[in-house]
Amino acid sequence: MTTPDILENLAQSVTDYDPEGAARWAGEAIAAGIDPLAALAALTDAIRAVGDGFACGDLWLPDLIAAADAMSAGTAVLEAEIAARGMRQQGLGVVVIGTVFGDIHDIGKNMVATLLRAAGFVVHDLGINITAAAFVDAVAKHNAQVLALSALLTTTAPEQKKVIELLREAGLREQVKVIVGGGGITAAFADSIGADGYDATAPGAVKLARRLLGV
Ligand code: B12
After folding, report:
1. Ligand 1 centre from 34 Cα, in Å?
2. How far apart are CA 12 and CA 7, in angstroms?
């Protein structure tokens, strides 16, 4: 089977709400020597298409949930492969990452965490629905050099600003580079809240963290 066929089947397993298929086709992609990042991109395009269907009223919340389950099954296989291939040295720096308060989207955040780990960062993933205070505590506790904030909703994007303000109040703003992302976040928004950087992709998040730390 050709690479486009495998990637198409992988993507279709998301639009078919088929977690077993997603895991199986992700495995096929790896076995066929396809770059796991290309396979993640195929899954991402598919879930965004489902999101578009939801936005225009063609699909409903259960569709979103079922597609997300399939997506997660596929990404789990690909992320395990990326982690296995990743450099074992963990010397690039310490990152705290999480999805902001009020927001439970974690697929993109998990991709960013996986690629940062694979690149050699020590990553403390706090999970989803994380309060500004919890982010600030984690930065202090882990002596983080990078704080990566993910937000997918227009209603939760302002939480990223809240975290930056709280870091400033705690006297920690100068010790940590704050990078922001997630669907709906833009470079202009990142600038407006005083973040140190923004990127629209997970590989871009790694480049950004490396550039900001000079590593
Ligand atoms: C899957 C999904 C869900 C799943 C989430 C499951 C999970 N485990 O994450 C479920 C079903 C739970 C869900 C729920 C909801 N969702 Co939803 N969801 C989506 C969907 C379809 C895909 C999100 C996704 O995983 N994308 C794929 C990943 C790979 O992309 P990503 O997250 O953007 O991440 C990439 C980049 O942004 C970047 N990145 C991510 N984080 C970071 C961080 C840093 C620091 C950097 C540098 C980069 C970076 O790297 C990633 C890889 O490239 C989107 C549609 C879309 N177009 O995104 C809607 C979407 C985000 N959801 C939406 C909505 C409205 C909701 C609900 C409110 C629905 C409801 N009525 O209840 C709830 C909210 C729940 C909550 N409180 O959070 C809207 C948001 C609209 C808005 N502008 O606010 C969207 C846009 C759908 C739409 N078009 O209407 N959702």
Report:
1. 26
2. 8
Residue type, 211: R
Question: pLDDT-based confidence at 138, cuts 50/70/90?
Answer: very high
Q: What is the CATH number of domain 93-213?
A: 3.40.50.280
Q: CB pairs under 8 A, 24+ apart, for 30-38?
A: 30/77, 30/78, 30/81, 32/1, 32/3, 32/6, 34/3, 34/6, 34/7, 36/78, 36/79, 36/81, 36/82, 36/85, 37/82, 37/203, 38/7
3 state DSSP class of 78: helix
Read off the pLDDT of residues 157-176 as tens digits, 9 standing for 90 and up: 999 999 999 999 999 999 99
120 Cβ closer than 6 Å to some ligand 1 atom: no
For the segment 79-118, what is each residue's pLDDT rounded down to a tens digit?
Answer: 999 888 875 556 799 999 999 999 999 999 999 998 898 8
Give percent of the chain above pLDDT 70: 98
- What are the sequence ranges of the domains in the chain? 3-85, 93-213
Are residues 205 and 112 in contact, defined by beta-carbon separation less than 8 angstroms?
yes
For atom 25 of ligand 1, which residue has the closest CA? Answer: 107
Chain position carrying tokens 């990566």:
148
Query: pTM above 0.85?
Result: yes
154 in contact with ligand 1, CB cutoff 6 A: yes
Rg (CA), the chain: 17
3-85, CATH topology level: 1.10.1240
